[in-house]
Amino acid sequence: MKTVSVTASRNYNILIDSGLLPQLGAQVAALGNIQTVALVSETNVYPLYGKQVEDSLRRAGLNVVSFVFPAGESSKNAHVYLELVNFLAKNRLTRTDALVALGGGVVGDLTGFAAATYLRGIRFVQVPTTLLAAVDSSVGGKTAIDLEVGKNLVGAFWQPSLVLCDTDTLDTLPREIFLDGCAEVIKYAILYDGDFFHYLASTGPGFDKAYVIERCVTMKRDVVARDEFDTGERRLLNLGHTVGHGVEAKSNFTLSHGKSVAIGTAIIARSAVNYQLLSQECAIKIENLLREFCLPVRTQDSAKELASFALSDKKRTGDTVSLVVPRAIGRCEILTTPVEELENFIQAGL
């Protein structure tokens, strides 16, 4: 088993291996002083792993109540959030109890936000079942729900008490969903590690899952340790996201997060070439790697439409928007862009 330790406002371990789900109950009980666990999942994941997780928790002597909501980004909203916290209150969970998020990024974000706000803070455990959640959203303590005007606009920083990644759960993912998570894997390679980028180019989607998850969360762990509350360096992790969230919102969330981020990353890379910030060779390598993982690199959306959505993004500060721009494979920087220049910058990459 691989263990990555995170040092933050709450210290915790990320456990990575196959066959970990049966150990979940013992790992949660070891956190101490927990009587009741609220298992939070969604309608695609719960039928696959819900009973196994409940049984593991009960074997460890824990009471279990389960909250299951409709799968999909559209459920990451205020209505489902209020249903969840009311469920916790009706089942009389106390501040010494815990939540377990079993699922992908939507489950983790929603559960984490409920944990951050119910009784002003209750512990929670991330059990990611998608590649995207395993390598990115389950780690670092960002929790949120969406508003009609944009993603993740209401949230809190609330670190989990444990992250348990059973790589066997990735074997039941539809291939398209697995490839979706690869967009975040590629993001880390572009940001920090040229050797890792070349490893992905050589293996394609057949990479060693445990190795890739460990590599990505280690990179994120190091960033979170230096900038937990996203005021400086951690903003680099938004590579492809500002424009990508625009693509995702414009599609009314019918286009997946990973595909949207892939498109956003490719647009920013092409824009960087046109602004003489990145070599054409590097931009081509980025596009080719995204294509190798069957991820899209183009959109029919206009620069004006994407800029409009980007201006509702939480990364806007006053009259500027922070864009993460690649300068080389393994090196990116934050470009503070005036609002009036944003449309032109996006247009340069379409």
Structure overview:
By secondary structure, the protein is an alpha/beta fold. The strands form three sheets. The chain has a seven-stranded mixed sheet, sandwiched between helices. Strands 10-11-12 form a three-stranded antiparallel sheet. It is built from 13 helices and twelve strands.
Helix content: 40-55%
Strand order of the largest sheet: 1-2-9-6-5-3-4
Please name the CATH architecture of the largest domain. Answer: Up-down Bundle
**Over the alpha carbons, how many angstroms does the gyration radius reach?**
20 Å
How many domains comprise the coordinates?
A: 2
Number of DSSP helices? 13
Largest sheet: 7 strands, mixed
Any descriptors?
350 residues; 2 domains; Dehydroquinate synthase-like, alpha domain; alpha/beta; Rossmann fold
Topology summary:
Blueprint: E1 2-6, E2 12-17, H1 24-29, E3 36-42, H2 46-59, E4 63-69, H3 78-90, E5 98-103, H4 105-117, E6 123-128, H5 131-137, E7 142-147, E8 150-157, E9 162-166, H6 175-192, H7 194-203, H8 209-226, H9 241-250, H10 257-274, H11 280-292, H12 303-310, E10 316-317, E11 320-328, E12 331-338, H13 339-347
Helix pairs in contact: 3-4, 5-6, 5-8, 6-7, 6-8, 6-10, 9-10, 9-12, 10-11, 12-13
